[in-house]
């Protein structure tokens, strides 16, 4: 039994990487809780940018119990200059795109930001009323493409590069996860998301003068 959640164990993605580098296979039995939280200790692979030596055996044995650091604490102690520097040299994005567009999406991510590894998580997107649904009349297989890390392209610029990704995602009828930095205009945002039911309900419940709409809450373009 491999209890990968133990503080002194290697980060899970590095553990998997070792199998790939050795070009070998193996069978492991992992406790359910450890498997569910397999990316928690390393914040997926983000911690290697925050603590580059964090996966070193000595660090894991002595200080592994201290990670992952509280993201809220990191933000609290982060100055404005550091925040802007981090924003300009770091990407955290999740884009949900149709599975049929996956190859094109990976090529686009590679040319625009070149962040690896990529998180790929397939799922069925049902055709339900609301802001997010397939273009057709039936459910469709989508995949969440997540990019977390430092871009390796020389031409990376946070706003311009993110807008390139957003444009591609709109063109293939995909969706951007709303937690991430969003630089779309209001028109582009509602081109990506179906706002018909949302605006109807806001009108019926008289929310327009009481509460900001979702675009103003999640898009950087609304606050710049």
From TrEMBL:
The keyword Signal does not apply. GO terms for molecular function: Delta24(24-1) sterol reductase activity. Signal peptide: none annotated. One of its GO terms (biological process) is steroid metabolic process. The keyword Oxidoreductase applies. One of its GO terms (cellular component) is cytoplasm. Keywords: Oxidoreductase. It comes from the Eukaryota. PANTHER family: 24-DEHYDROCHOLESTEROL REDUCTASE, DELTA(24)-STEROL REDUCTASE. This is Delta(24)-sterol reductase. It comes from Micrurus paraensis. The lineage of its organism: Eukaryota, Metazoa, Chordata, Craniata, Vertebrata.
